[in-house]
Each structure stands twice: as structure tokens, then as C-alpha cells.
Design a protein that fits this description.
The protein is an alpha/beta fold and about 475 residues long. It is built from 16 helices and 13 strands.
Length: about 475
């Protein structure tokens, strides 16, 4: 991957006021900046030791006072020389310090860092593999304790070690197959002598376990998008407030109160769920929609956005009024739901209808009877959401996987499945060893793409561009 090797600088702490702020530099030969800003020469800065000193302007006046820490290559985060200046966390003083560093670094072509460029250099200098680099961003963005723990494990290299072990197993098996292809005159039953089918079966089992753990980690990272949809005034906002444990949505008896989506992230047994309350769906009033006059222009826009959220949902909670019972409007709404998305029909207001809290699991849809107002039946809903998500309470490590990791693992599994087919002798007793070896090679490449060995440059650019500046 091509990279502008000029030294880089950026504010490494989050925008806003704080007790401490950090300006970070990385590159070759940072001494002109260290000398100008810190007033120190090489022999005066001991690597990896904090030095308290003033940060100086060009005229020698003081911008701020703080700590300077110099990391000598290759013993640094990026693998290059790194300087961190830790001062007070005011945005103005940090901008002044950054500007002074850029001014002092003109002779070495010091420039502003791009988003994720420090971590990108760590990857390119073999300080981190790609899965670990992605875990850096995931640890920063973690929304739950479980997600933070899983991201920390991935950053430590646990996920990478598992993937590397799979690659080694596939590579060893591939070597056996290709060695047999190189010596066809040897009349040896390769598959029996080397237990190739047994080795392949064990690799496939291990890959299935890793995929299951990674899928759990993907839920931790991204959460589940749960959309509340239904007619106005059926209790969507009330249900959101109960799930969130706070009054995050306005609740009134007036139909159409919610005009735009309201999103709240909650946790159920450590799994994050993004609960999205939407505008109540009604089209023109009348017999089908017995909610009074049709929607005005603002509400119509809100309803359009509701359907947009429904189209992106991982789970749809179709809210209905148990006291009123099913209506033609409810059925018309259900007909527009996308296929393949789990739907849970929520019969709310059982405190008025006389129903008891209950769950009725049917092949295509699950019905849950509850009362958001009385907060009864909520455990049934929480349990069903965990079931639909495929969430398991486990003591096993979860790797905070991304979608591309799941795609690569699934593709590798497909190649191993086809390899198993080619390893099975046909009716004539022949084995398609050339195809067996090719499927193993493709599986090896897909697994290696997770840690970055066979990852295209354009994908690397997309991955690192989503990092924050200074990381």
C-alpha cells in the first residue's frame, strides 16, 4: 500500500475541554521539532521517559507547560519515531501547540495526519495486523463493557492468533495435497495415509466455532437495530421509554405525536440494541385507519422515514392495540414489511383488554401480549429479542468481529466445504486432488485477508479513513 512517508502531527485527544490534551507526532527525524518546541537536544531526551518542560513559541515565549515523551523507532506505537506532548486540554491551547509543531517542522515536511494514519503506519510497519488495528477503533467506539472487553482481547491479538492457527492448518493440509500432485507415480492412497479428510473435518469444525464466536462479537460491536412500527397511538413511544428506563420519547394521547425517529441504545444481558421509535403509520384516515383525519405534510415526511427505517431493520416490533384488536390497517402495514426480517407482533395495552402477559411463537411470527403502561410482559419481550438475535450467554471469548470478518470466514467455510466434496472419491475411486488443492488455497487467502495479508489497498483506505484523527 502506498503511503506518504512525511512526518505527521495531530491532536490525539477528543475535541472539547479536558484536564489533559495530547499532540502526537510520528515520522523520521523529529529532532528539529523537539529542539524548537521543547528546547531539548537528542542527548537530553531519554526515550520513553516523561520530561516536564515548557512548550515554546518561535520567539522563546511559552505556549504551555507539560510533559514531552519521546519514543525511538522501532519501539513506538507506529514503529517510527514518535513524540507526544501532553499539556492542558483546552482546544485553543492545543491548536496553538499543533500549529507551532507544524511551523517548526516545515524543514522536515511535517504535515497534518489523516484519520487513522497513526494506526495505519503501525499496520504497515508490522506493529499490528489488520484485525488488531480495527480493534483499536472498536475499543474506542465500544458502547458496552462486554464490547470493550472483546475489543481489548482482539487488540491483544487473540482473534488474530486463532485466525493464524486456522491458516497454518489449511496451509499444512494444502502442502500434503500438492506434494501428492508432485509425485503422481507414488501409488499411495494419500487421503488414507495422511488422514486428510480427518484433518479437513477438524479444520471445518474449528472454523465453525470461530464463526459462531465472531458472530456474537459482531452483535456486540454493531448492536441489533430494532424498529418499532405501527399505527399512531398504539404505545410505541411508551414501550421505548420502558425499555430505555427513561422518558426519551414524548407520550401523549394525541395521535401522531412522534414525527421523526427517536433512537435509544439499550443493553439486554450485555448485548446492545438500537431501539428506533418511528412515526405512527396512517395514510388518509377513513375506515382503514381509524385515527382521525389524515396526516399533515410534516407527519407524511415522518411516515416516509418510518418506512426507510423499516427497510433497514434487523428486527421489527409491529405494535398493535390489544384492546382494539386486529384491524385492516394493521394487516396493510404488515404486508409492506420486508421479507426475511424477523417480526414480533406486540399486542400492547393488555391492562385494558384483559389479556394476560403471554408469548405465542408461531412459524412466521411471534406474538407477545404486554402492557407498556403497567410494565408487564417486558421480560417476555427481552427474552424473545435475545432469541431472535441468536445471543448466547457464554464464558467463551467473543471476538469483536466486523462484517468483513464474517464474510471472509463464511467464504473460507464455503471453500472448505467444496474441498471436502473433492476429497471424497467418486464412483470410480478417483479423487479430484487438483480441485481439492485449489479450494484450500482460496480458503487460505480468505482467512489471511482478515489479518491483512491479502487485503486490497482500496479496502485498507476505507478501513483507516473511518478512524478518528490522531489515532
Amino acid at each position: 500500500m502506498s503511503l506518504d512517508a512525511s512526518p505527521i502531527a495531530a491532536i490525539a485527544t477528543a475535541p472539547g475541554r479536558g484536564g489533559i490534551g495530547v499532540v502526537r507526532l510520528s515520522g523520521k527525524n523529529l529532532w528539529p521539532v523537539i529542539s524548537a518546541v521543547c528546547g531539548k537536544q537528542p542527548e537530553q531526551m531519554q526515550p520513553r521517559y516523561a520530561t516536564y518542560l515548557p512548550f515554546l513559541r518561535a520567539d522563546g515565549s511559552v505556549i504551555d507547560q507539560g510533559l514531552a515523551i519521546y519514543f525511538k523507532a522501532p519501539h513506538s506505537y507506529t514503529g517510527e519515531d514518535v513524540l507526544e506532548l501532553q499539556g492542558h486540554g483546552g482546544p485553543v491551547v492545543l491548536q496553538m501547540l499543533l500549529a507551532r509543531c507544524l511551523e517548526a517542522g516545515q524543514e522536515i515536511d511535517l504535515r497534518m495526519a489523516q484519520p487513522g494514519e497513526f494506526t495505519q503506519r503501525a499496520f504497515l510497519n508490522d506493529k499490528l495486523d489488520l484485525a488488531q488495528a480495527e480493534a483499536v477503533a472498536d475499543l474506542i467506539d465500544a458502547s458496552t463493557e462486554a464490547a470493550a472487553r472483546s475489543a481489548s482481547e482482539s487488540l491483544s491479538g487473540e482473534f488474530s492468533r486463532v485466525v493464524h492457527a486456522l491458516v497454518r492448518q489449511v496451509t499444512d493440509l494444502r502442502m500434503l495435497v500438492e506434494a501428492t500432485l508432485d509425485f503422481p507415480e507414488e501409488e499411495i492412497d494419500f487421503l488414507e495415509q495422511s488422514d486428510a479428510r480427518g484433518q479437513l473435518a477438524r479444520v471445518r469444525d474449528t472454523l465453525a466455532q470461530v464463526f459462531a464466536q465472531a458472530a456474537q462479537g459482531a452483535l456486540l460491536r454493531d448492536g441489533l437495530n430494532v424498529v418499532l412500527a405501527g399505527q399512531p397511538n398504539v404505545g410505541k413511544s411508551s414501550l421505548l421509554n420502558v425499555l430505555a428506563g427513561a422518558d426519551v420519547a414524548i407520550v401523549t394521547a394525541i395521535a401522531g405525536t412522534t414525527r421523526d425517529k427517536v433512537t435509544q441504545t439499550i443493553q439486554i444481558e450485555g448485548m446492545p440494541l438500537n431501539i428506533i421509535d418511528t412515526a405512527g403509520i396512517r395514510e388518509g384516515g377513513g375506515a382503514d385507519f381509524d385515527t382521525g383525519p389524515g396526516p399533515d405534510e410534516v407527519e407524511r415526511i415522518g411516515i416516509e422515514r418510518t418506512w426507510g427505517e423499516v427497510a433497514k431493520a434487523d428486527v421489527i416490533l409491529h405494535m398493535m392495540d390489544a384492546d382494539r384488536g386486529p384491524t385492516r390497517a394493521d394487516e396493510k402495514i404488515a404486508l409492506r414489511f420486508p421479507s426475511g426480517v424477523p417480526i414480533i407482533r406486540i399486542w400492547n395495552k393488555i391492562d385494558r383488554s384483559g389479556h394476560k402477559p403471554a408469548i405465542d411463537a408461531m412459524p412466521d411470527v411471534t406474538h407477545i401480549y404486554l402492557s407498556a403502561a403497567e410494565r408487564t410482559g417486558m421480560d417476555l419481550l427481552r427474552t424473545e429479542l435475545l432469541r431472535v438475535a441468536g445471543w448466547r450467554q457464554t464464558t467463551e471469548s467473543r471476538y469483536l468481529a466486523r462484517e468483513r470478518h464474517l464474510i471472509a470466514l463464511k467464504a473460507a467455510g464455503g471453500h472448505l466445504d467444496r474441498a471436502a466434496e473433492h476429497a471424497t472419491p467418486d464412483r470410480g475411486g478417483d479423487q479430484k486432488l487438483e480441485l481439492f488443492a485449489e479450494e484450500l488455497r482460496l480458503a487460505q487467502e480468505r482467512l489471511s485477508s482478515i489479518t491483512g495479508r491479502f487485503t486490497p489497498d482500496d479496502l485498507l483506505g476505507v478501513i483507516f479513513s473511518r478512524f478518528c484523527i490522531g489515532k
